[in-house]
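By convention, each integer encodes one residue's backbone shape. The lines below illustrate.
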Amino acid sequence: MLDALVKNLVDVKQSFAKNYSGNAHIQEVIPSYVSEKFQLPSQIFQHLHDFALKNPIYFNHYEEDIEGILCTVYEGDINQYWLNSIKHGSSCQPFYPTWIMSAYVMTSIVKELGYLELIDIGSGDGRIAFCGSAMGMNSYSIEIDDVLVELQKTISTSTNQNFNPVCHDALEFDYSALNLKKPIFFIGGLAQMGGDVLATSIIDRITSIENLKKYSGIVFAGTDTKRQLSGNLENGGWSTLIEKSDLKVINTVSLPTIWTFDQDVETPYIFTKFK
């Protein structure tokens, strides 16, 4: 079911991107209703639209038929948050979020894999952690930028979804304080942009907590776009760290993100666990 959902979402994104005539800084779509191609619980659709409607980065929305599916298009501007997010020395990537629908798909995958807690590192506006909370997981959103954390708190309050926004440097955060049982960590940053340093630190902290390593998973955001000095793009650029850290790839899914909107490829997310 999830494979079909991913294919249908990518098809909608590709069609929308080719025909989009607006000039908003960012844009994404969420199907408006349950349909044959998007058989999500109606309550989930309500949560996803609620997140977009109550998120200040979006300033406009309208409905459009895309590939025979009635969708809501959300237009926004993240310039203010992007500029603020690059001022931190240990930040691995400026604020460029995945699509809300993509966040839901990834959360569905980790739920099927049996993880109990979701920890989003470098969480931006908290959409992945939000989806985890909406699906009944214990979510924690770790973000170094105070402005983005205040944005998360606004969304958390207005949507009545507590995904525990925390303003902290993920390299120094005490994860043992969360009393984790079976967590999965999302790493917000490409390996080529310093995400490997962040991920290495998180892995070191996981392995330092007794009995946590064998129950933990890690999700990496990768890239399939070959650029100068990008190096090895196997496993989205994470193959070296995956091998070095004794991790096993258990799933890879390519999903729409704001930073690949104008490309004919999506963003690969690599799901791993310790061997």
